[in-house]
Design goal:
It holds the Pfam family IRK_C. Its main location: membrane. It is found in: Membrane. One of its GO terms (biological process) is potassium ion import across plasma membrane. There is one protein chain. It is built from 24 helices and 24 strands. With 748 residues, the chain is α+β, with helices and mostly antiparallel strands. The chain folds into 4 domains: 102 residues, Helix Hairpins (Orthogonal Bundle); 159 residues, Sandwich (Immunoglobulin-like), CATH 2.60.40; 175 residues, Glutaredoxin; 153 residues, no CATH class. The strands form 8 sheets. Strands 5, 6, 7, 10 and 13 form a 5-stranded mixed β-sheet that branches. Strands 18, 19, 20, 21 and 22 form a 5-stranded mixed β-sheet that branches. Helix 11 crosses helix 12, helix 13 packs antiparallel against helix 17 and helix 17 packs across helix 20. It is elongated, with a radius of gyration of 38 Å. It starts with a helix and ends with a helix.
């Protein structure tokens, strides 16, 4: 179209005027030249060379073209009747073979009729005296060449017949030529849509992915991709119809070159929420057999100066759950980046499971039916509870629900390391919040984690019980649990476990509080110190005897009943200082890891506490000690007179653990990896449950929470109910390699 071409020229000139200069070419021309040259290389190198591969791609492309022209609906087409318009439509719709057969059939029929008329009319001269073929040659010369041939008319009737046949030949040749030219001018899409749509997560958010491939690798402009959800519905009056709901796309492509992937973010409460049932396994493909997703791709092809179109419909059986598309970029023998269209339909399972931050507890599992696959309930909390927070009301606005339970963290690391797929649920276990009713149905104690095996209705509570049960049933879990080093024993594990619990107990008492006085103060702090073995039965017995003697002295000095006498805990034997003991526990833990992970002449068996690969002990130690590697937590402990040193071997071990692909997803937050929410849950309990007033220090505690939220920004929830991320959770992929550069150019 002239106006369209002029518009494109204006766009090109406008872009050139704003671009930087690259040699003698402008920036726009340089980019365009690079794209054209790269596209041609991709078309040559990316297309498979083997005959079978090429045939498969051609068949896929042909099938895509058929789908764009009606697909299965063509078989239900009623007869179009015999007319010029019907023939014209069929010729343009069908393949070139069909067009050739129609042209050959029309000419053959015309020649046959004209030859019969020649035999009836007669009056022609044949210099070859071949009466058998003369009528056919008479008709062929007039119809095909539109002029006289070797067989000439000699009478008025035969001359009139010859002129009529020439006129018929003009009409036939014009129409047939029009068919051919129109088919050449009518562009075929040569676009492929992947056989399967992917149901996956991006930064914990559920998405639908559909991949598009342009086999020609030319740049298509003004691309429009639409995803439409099709569902059969029935009205109360009995009418059945197909409802069409348009699904929004995130960052839809405006141009198509080689490959592109479009994505729709699934909103559980939105029109695409039905896909969550399919993604989580709550419903099977058979139960959602009426579910259809239609993908339509249209784009302007500047070579044809027309629009091209492709369409595909996905049923519930065509969705790959928990999968993403395989990379189609490759490098040929010359080192050039090419597109491997053979892999355009390939999908790969997502090995990392990340949970999206939500407003509150997830919808609970279906208790009335056995689990379709392994189901795990994780404990959730918030990094900030807003103005309703009893402990820190000025900390900030309300944040989203994230996984916070350290026991769940260890279990998630084990499952991800073993490659086990599971359906997650997050239950709000925050202090002061109402726990969901369905959590009590899973575990009467309302504790996490809780798991249910595939095909079972009974729930298993506790991380240790879940791990042991899975190890008995699954070889992959059993292999991870069995990872052990001969030089590492349970004693080392107990020393490492003491560090975090002892610190939590230590900050709940003042700097001068001794062990005996701490026992007399009581509370959760003493329980923690008892769990790590700092408070022994002998100490408790000594304190009990001292308290009894003090009570007797008070009774002797006063006539008041014993129930009204208050024992002064300040006037007792302090015993060993609590914080000094805690600091010793922390130092022993890090010294133990430093020795166990010290390299020994390139021995890779000392990379982790369990050997060459991480095991259960690594997961537990890494989760328990994770906060110690945060500068803000180190400052917080220093304000409570607890100091420690982390050696280089220990830091290297921690770096190897955090570099695991599923480390961040272990907390499952999908954004802040749950660090801020987990820290808030712990600090709030320490402040509210402490029996020693003023400890831990409230100002230091609030500063710790603010610093953690700055280092690990959580997901905030607006008053409108819309969830928003403070920062993007997806890392940028940078690099100057030819493959990365070509990927950017080919996919623009």
């Amino acid at each position: 179209h002239p106006s369209l071409r002029s518009s494109l020229r204006r766009d090109s000139s406008g872009a050139s005027s704003l671009s930087l200069k690259t040699g003698s070419l402008s920036g726009w021309d340089a980019i365009r030249a690079s794209l054209v040259s790269q596209n041609s290389r991709s078309l040559r190198g990316g297309l498979p060379r083997k005959h079978k591969s090429s045939k498969r791609l051609r068949e896929s492309s042909t099938k895509a073209v058929k789908d764009a022209r009606g697909g299965a609906a063509v078989t239900s087409r009623t007869s179009l009747g015999f007319s010029a318009s019907a023939i014209y439509f069929l010729v343009l719709e069908r393949t070139w073979w069909y067009c050739a057969l129609v042209i050959a059939g029309v000419f053959a029929l015309s020649l046959g009729v004209c030859a019969l008329l020649c035999m009836v009319v007669g009056g022609f001269h044949d210099p070859l005296d071949s009466t058998a073929t003369a009528p056919l040659r008479f008709a062929a010369s007039h119809v095909l060449t539109m002029s006289f041939g070797t067989v000439t008319p000699v009478t008025d009737a035969s001359y009139a017949l010859a002129v009529t046949q020439c006129f018929l030949g003009v009409l036939l040749n014009v129409f047939m030529f029009t068919f051919v030219i129109t088919k050449f001018q009518r562009p075929l899409a040569h676009m492929l849509l992947a056989d399967s749509a992917c149901l996956c997560t991006r930064a914990g958010e559920p998405f639908i992915l559909v991949r598009i491939g342009n086999l020609r690798c030319n740049t298509l402009h003004r691309a429009e991709v639409t995803l439409t959800l099709l569902r059969r519905k029935r009205t109360p009056e009995g009418e059945t119809f197909v409802s069409r709901t348009a699904l929004s796309l995130q960052e839809p492509p405006r141009t198509l070159t080689a490959v592109a992937t479009v994505a729709h973010k699934i909103i559980p409460q939105g029109p695409g929420g039905v896909f969550m049932d399919l993604a989580t396994g709550r419903k099977t493909s058979e139960e959602l057999k009426d579910l259809l997703l239609q993908c339509i791709v249209t784009a302007y092809d500047p070579i044809y100066d027309a629009e091209v179109c492709a369409v595909k419909v996905y049923s519930a059986h065509n969705f790959a759950r928990g999968c993403v598309y395989a990379d189609v970029m490759n490098v040929d023998e010359k080192g050039q980046a090419v597109v491997d269209f053979e892999r355009i339909h390939d999908v790969l399972p997502q090995k990392v499971k990340i949970f999206p931050p939500l407003k509150d507890s997830w919808e609970g599992p279906d208790m009335n039916r056995p689990a379709r696959m392994l189901e795990v309930v994780f404990g959730g909390g918030r990094a900030c509870h807003g103005s309703k927070d009893d402990a820190f009301p000025t900390l900030g606005p309300l944040t989203a629900m994230e996984q916070v339970c350290s026991y769940c963290y260890k279990l998630a690391l084990l499952l991800n390391e073993a490659g086990m797929d599971y359906i997650p649920y997050i239950a709000n276990i925050s202090l002061g919040d109402d726990k969901p009713d369905w959590l009590e149905a899973c575990n009467p104690k309302k504790e996490t984690p809780v798991a249910r095996l595939q095909g079972k209705t009974e729930w298993i509570a506790g991380s240790d019980a879940i791990m042991s049960t899975l190890a008995e049933m699954d070889e992959r879990v059993r292999a991870v649990v069995a990872r052990r080093r001969e030089d590492v024993n349970e004693g080392h594990e107990q020393v490492i476990k003491k560090a975090y619990m002892s610190v939590l107990g230590g900050v709940m008492f003042g700097p001068t509080v001794g062990l005996k006085r701490a026992v007399k103060i009581g509370g959760v702090g003493v329980m923690l110190l008892k769990m790590v073995g700092l408070v022994t039965p002998d100490i408790e017995k000594e304190v009990e005897e001292e308290m009894k003697k003090q009570m007797e002295r008070k009774e002797a000095e006063s006539e008041a009943p014993s129930d009204d006498i208050v024992v002064d805990v300040d006037n007792v034997d302090e015993g060993l200082n609590v914080r000094s003991l805690v600091q010793t526990c922390v130092s022993e833990a890090f010294d133990t890891i430093e020795r166990l992970t010290a390299p020994s002449h390139g021995d890779e068996g000392r990379m982790f506490l369990c050997g060459k690969a991480p095991g259960v002990m690594d997961f537990g130690a890494a989760v328990d000690l994770a906060n110690f590697f945060q500068p803000s937590f180190e400052v917080f402990l220093a304000k409570h007179d607890i100091r420690f040193r982390i050696g280089p071997n220990c830091r290297a071990w921690h770096a190897r653990m955090t570099s695991l692909p599923h480390w961040r997803s272990g907390m499952g937050a999908g954004h802040s990896d749950g660090t801020a929410a987990a820290m808030k849950t712990i600090v709030t309990k320490l402040v509210l449950w402490s029996k020693d007033p003023g400890y831990p220090e409230r100002a230091a505690s609030e500063e710790l929470l603010r610093s953690t939220m700055r280092d690990f920004p959580p997901a905030y929830i607006e008053d409108t109910g819309k969830e928003e991320m403070r920062s993007d959770d997806m890392d940028s992929v940078n690099g100057g390699t030819s493959l990365n550069s070509a990927t950017a150019k080919l996919c623009v």
